[in-house]
From TrEMBL:
This is CoA-transferase. It comes from Rhodococcus olei. Gene3D superfamilies: Glutaconate Coenzyme A-transferase (3.40.1080.10). Belongs to the 3-oxoacid CoA-transferase subunit B family. InterPro entries: CoA_trans_fam_I (IPR004165), NagB/RpiA_transferase-like (IPR037171).
Length: 252
């Protein structure tokens, strides 16, 4: 196989975020996470439930950007999604516009809430996603505009916000992984702060620190993010993303 690309390392890191998740709905936003959940289910997490994006859960592995052509496993209409997600049976990977050190996420607006300079999506499902079931994040471009000391609006609930709100917010609240084009991060259990887990090949710890607008928790030893195996690389390139959409989201 030819040299592994940064996009393929990111896809495997997203897949690893779904390792040993069991039978949950795997929802992933962005091309790289979509590759990751397909790879995870095809290999080490076969119980993940993937939707066709409409109203059915589908068996098999299909290319990103195309129709779900596998066998239909279950009828999964929109109103039934809530029955599942309210009980922690979903792991979503969202794309934050801003993220702070405790995992508070903003996807709503940039600037003062009363008169924002940029209007974005609105909070959408972010409050419920972060309170009711495990949540991870995908950041295609790791920089200080995304990783900020304080988000302009809390759309998704961070660890500090959940603790302040009490048991109703913390019961299912679980921020798991943040995968970026530079590194993999998680949240330190004691402080709830963002912690560096690994850096991608060709990236240094200093590169990540310089691209982050607050102080990270950095262990004494930070390993390199694993590369895909030969079998995983074959799946990504020939089955899951034969059109190479991944390189449009992450270059290098």
């Amino acid at each position: 196989m030819s040299e592994v690309t940064r996009a393929e390392v990111c896809a495997v890191a997203c897949a690893d975020a779904y390792r040993d998740n069991g039978e949950v709905i795997a929802s992933a936003f962005g091309t790289i996470p979509a590759i990751g959940v397909r790879l995870a289910r095809h290999t080490f997490s076969p119980d993940l439930v993937l939707s066709d994006g409409e109203a059915t859960a589908v068996r098999g592995t299909w290319p990103v950007g195309g129709p779900a052509e596998g066998d239909v496993e279950a009828w999964l209409p929109f109103n039934q999604i809530f029955t599942l997600v309210w009980n922690g049976k979903r792991h979503i990977m969202m794309i934050p516009t801003q993220l702070d050190m405790y995992g508070n996420c903003n996807i709503s607006a940039i600037g003062d809430h009363a008169r924002p300079t940029v209007q974005l999506l609105g909070v959408r499902g972010a409050p419920g996603n972060t309170v009711y079931h495990p949540t991870s994040y995908w950041v295609p471009k790791h920089n200080t505009r995304v990783f900020v000391p304080k988000v302009d609006m809390v759309s998704g609930v961070g660890n500090d916000s959940a603790r302040k709100a009490g048991p109703a917010a913390t019961r299912y609240h679980e921020l798991r992984r943040v995968v970026t084009d530079l590194a993999v991060l998680d949240f330190a259990p004691d402080s709830g702060r963002l912690r560096l887990v690994s850096v991608h090949p060709g990236v240094t710890v200093d590169d990540v620190v310089a691209a982050t607008g607050f102080e990270l928790v950095i262990p004494d030893s930070v390993p390199q993010t694993r590369k895909p195996t030969a079998d995983e690389l074959e799946l990504i390139r020939t089955v899951i993303d034969p059109r190479n959409l991944r390189d449009r989201e992450v270059q290098g």
